[in-house]
Amino acid sequence: MNSERSTQTTERQDVSPLLKLALELGPLGVFFIANSRGAQLAEMFPALGALGQPIFIATAAFMVAISISLTVSYILTRHLPVMPMVSGVVVLVFGALTLYLQDDLFIKLKPTIVNTLFGSILLGGLFFGKSLLGYVFDSAFKLDAEGWRKLTMRWGVFFFVLALINEFVWRNFSTDFWVDFKVFGFMPITMVFTMMQLPLIQKHSLESEEKS
């Protein structure tokens, strides 16, 4: 019985990269579609019209989608990654405030708060001599202490940059533009930044040292 349970647990942990990507990006896609098609959705489902403008319909859809994503992720892996879990909690809290107060300011502040929180945790950990990013990505790749320290520093600063970008965009552009940028702006920026870290990862990889 114990061996069968461990086998089932292992199978649940083996989630394909495409499924992981879908679970992470799916809620953003729902948010974008619900905002751009809010009027049509309200006509099709009159109950949604009570939520108000498309941004409020999109916020409600975002909350449902991210709840489903986290639930499916937990069922498949039996654990929740730290970053998606924190982001999901903030979405639910600030989404509820957005709907209750009918003020989209709260959902717009979510990326600022999440990125500032992550940046503060990473840089604060370095202040106390801890490269906390290693605890998050240690299963993905192995780096030496200097590599984790440099990578943690870069990601900590990058999170603050994302927070500043979000503040600039929502304060200076329309809500629709902010939604579009949240979906199609932040992701490419993050992907480019991640690719730029590959030389650092290769340089400080313990696996490459073992092979040599």
TrEMBL record:
Top-level taxon = Bacteria
Q: How does it sit in the membrane?
A: Multi-pass membrane protein
Which positions, given as ranges, span the membrane? 55-76, 82-101, 113-133, 153-171, 183-202
> Which keywords are on file for this protein?
Cell inner membrane, Cell membrane, Membrane, Transmembrane, Transmembrane helix
* Locations listed in the record: Cell inner membrane
**Pfam families membership:** IspA
Q: Which HAMAP family match?
A: YciB
PANTHER family recorded: INNER MEMBRANE-SPANNING PROTEIN YCIB, INTRACELLULAR SEPTATION PROTEIN A-RELATED
Member of which family?
Answer: Belongs to the YciB family.
State what this protein does: Plays a role in cell envelope biogenesis, maintenance of cell envelope integrity and membrane homeostasis.
NCBIfam families, alphabetized:
ispZ, PRK00259.1-1
Q: What is the protein's given name?
A: Inner membrane-spanning protein YciB
Organism source for this protein? Pseudovibrio ascidiaceicola
